[in-house]
Amino acid sequence: MKRISVAAPKLSGKEREYVLDCLDSTWISSNGKYITAFEESFAQFCGVKHAIATNNGTTALHLALVALGVQPGDEVLIPTVTYIATANAVRYCGATPVLVDVCPGSMNIDPADLARHITTKTKGIIPVHLYGHPAEMASIIECAKTHNLFVLEDAAEAHGAEFMGKKVGTLGECSTFSFFGNKIITTGEGGMVTTNDDELATKLRLYRGQGMDPKRRYWFPVIGYNYRMTNIQAAIGLAQMENIDQAIAERKFIAEWYNQALSTLTDQLILPTEATWAQPVYWMYTIFLREGDESKRDAVMHALDEMGIETRPVFYPMHILPPYEQESTFPVADVWAQRGINLPTHQMLLKEDVGRIADALSTALSTALRLP
Asked: CATH code at 316?
C-alpha cells in the first residue's frame, strides 16, 4: 500500500505558468511583478493594509521584532509549546523569550498565565495560533493594553483562521506567516508580515532590504537584513492564493472525515475541539492520548509508521529543549505535549486514506497501550 505522508503541497493551479513566466522574463530574484501581486493578494485576503513578503517565516518573525523595537534586555512572552523559531527570533534580537503555559486542547498560550510573567522588562506578547486554531485574542489584547505591550501574532500555521469573525493577521500590531512546503499555501520557502500600521510597514520594508533608503539607492541609514522573497517564490504564492479558499475548505472536510472515522476511539483519544469564538483551519489535525506518556505516544507513532503512515509528535515544549531549558512550572504543557500526535493533514488526502489511517490507529492503540 502507498505510504501516506504527514504533509504534502497541492500545486494544481497556475504555479507552473507563473514560474515559467518568471524564467522567460528573467525576473527571478527579489524584484518583479509577482512580489507586489502576491503581497497585495495576501493583504486583501487577510483584510489588512500592508503585507510584506520575506524569504521564510522565521525571518518574518525577526523582521517584525526588529521593527517593533525589541532590543537586548527586553523580554517577550511566548507559549512554551510552539515551533522553536518563535523563541529563536526573540533571541536574535538579544532579548529573552519568557515562557508561558498553554491551554488544554488547543495548547495555545494561556491568557490567565500571562500576568504573573510580566516584569518591567516585558516588551510584548507573541501568541501562536498553533496548528491552525486561533489563540484567545481578546484577553491577550486586553492584557497587552493594560501593561502597554505590543502583540505580535505568530500565524505561521493559521492562514485564514478567524477569531470572533476576524481573520488572524489583523489582531495585533503586526502578524507573521510561513509559506514552507507543508503549510496551507506554500512558496516552497517564504514568509509574510501583515500590519495596518503605515509607519511600521515602512520600517519593515526598510529593514527587509538591507536597510537601503528607498529614495536614495545604495544609501543605508540603518543596519538591515537580506530577508527578501524572490519573484519565483512569489509567483508560486500568487497561484496558491488563487485557490486558498478551496484549500481551507478541503482541510475542513478532512477534519470532518477524521471526526467521523475516529468517533469510536474517543475512550482512548481526545480529538480536536473548536472554541465557540474560533474558526480554525486545520493546518494539522492533532489528537491526544487520554492516558500515557511520551513513550506510549511514540509507540503509537512507531506502529503507524510500520503500517505506512507518517505522523509527527506535537512540538516539544521550549522549557525542555537545551537552549531554553528551565525547571518545569508548566503543568498543562508537560502533560499534553507528551500525548499529542499530528496525523496526516493535507489536501491530497482522500476519504479512504482517512479511513485507512483510522483503522491503523485503532490497531496501533490496541498494541501500544498494552505495553508496560
From this structure: 3.90.1150.10
